[in-house]
Amino acid sequence: MEIFTYMEKYDYEQLVFCQDKSSGLKAIIAIHDTTLGPALGGTRMWTYKSEEDAIEDALRLAKGMTYKNAAAGLNLGGGKTVIIGDPKKDKNPEMFRAFGRYIQGLNGRYITAEDVGTTVHDMDLIHLETDFVTGISPESGSSGNPSPVTAYGVYKGMKAAAMEAYGSDSLEGKTVAIQGVGNVAYALCEFLHEEGAKLIVTDINKQSVERAVEAFNATAVDPDDIYDVDCDIYAPCALGATVNDDTINRLKAKIIAGSANNQLKSSKHGDIIHEKGIVYAPDYVINSGGVINVADELVGYNQKRAMKKVETIYDSLTRVFEISRTDNIPTYVAADRMAEERIEAKRNSRSQFLLNDHHILSRR
């Protein structure tokens, strides 16, 4: 992998390699774009097959955060960290404190948060060395468990998709097939049940399914059968890439809207569902409630203000659907365009400011 060629092609700003021999820290911080503000993105800990795989993952995830934060209307750019190691065996307090010192050294260009393989406790350790971290424990000023907030955003996004597909955003009487009933999806089930939606659920964890069946009068199906059920909305809330060659012709839903990341296996599947007339709520727009919530911590967390901001996911998706309809493009392309337009507008306004500043100075 030619790193600078890759960075230039996708316009990355910075790649930082962090090493601490005594703690075993091997981390890569990727900063994609800070046009809108400091880069915000979580710290992932994973057992990568190679250092190159770790670099590629950090770069890919950082770019995704640029688009997610831009689409969410946040004044934040995109970044991501990967720590190479087994989160079950290789963690130690010194590792995260050392990492916190590296973040502090970036002087606010990058703000981190919890991600796959890291915990609130890990963020608290980072917080001992820097204030540029979110998702810390409530005792330290955090917002606490983000799952209900993320679920609320998905619920609001689902209503926007219903408005696009059916001309009404009411979910009463609609059948929603929910794949995966983890923390976010369970909270989503609560919102849907309260509005009178009918729920069909599946999960590899039978206890999670039983809990949802008991609490929400949901119908349970086997994991592979969720693609074949008669439903209005298919909500992928667990694995990524569930909209693929094997499933796409089995889905009967008119809407795809869920909390999972990377729901489309490839862009061609986004093209296919667009051609089929299925309304797809792009994942990084509809599931942005969590990042909106932690972003509010940066200005002193206020739950009422954060939830009000999460409600704007409805408006963001409405805009995505409008772009998709007007330009006859798939919604995943429309979402990217919306995010890119926001970044470009900020970049142009900054250039204009610098130009005006130059004219003023040159006349002195």
Give short descriptive properties of this protein.
Rossmann fold, six-stranded parallel β-sheet, 12 strands, 13 helices, six-stranded mixed β-sheet, alpha/beta, 364 residues
Description:
GO terms for molecular function: L-leucine dehydrogenase activity; nucleotide binding. The protein is α/β, with parallel strands linked by helices and 364 residues long. Helices cover 47% and strands 14% of the residues. It is globular. The chain has helices at residues 3-9, 51-71, 93-105, 120-127, 147-166, 183-195, 206-216, 267-275, 283-286, 289-297, 303-310, 313-327, 331-362; strands at residues 14-20, 25-33, 39-40, 43-46, 77-84, 110-111, 175-179, 198-202, 219-220, 233-236, 255-256, 279-280. It is built from 13 helices and twelve strands. 48% of the residues are buried. The chain has two domains: 3-61 and 77-134, Leucine Dehydrogenase, chain A, domain 1 (Rossmann fold), CATH 3.40.50; 146-288 and 317-340, Rossmann fold (3-Layer(aba) Sandwich). Helix 6 links the parallel strand 7 (175-179) and strand 8 (198-202). The mean pLDDT is 94. The strands form two sheets. Strands 1, 2, 3, 4, 5 and 6 form a six-stranded mixed β-sheet that branches. Strands 9-8-7-10-11-12 form a six-stranded parallel β-sheet, with helices on both faces.
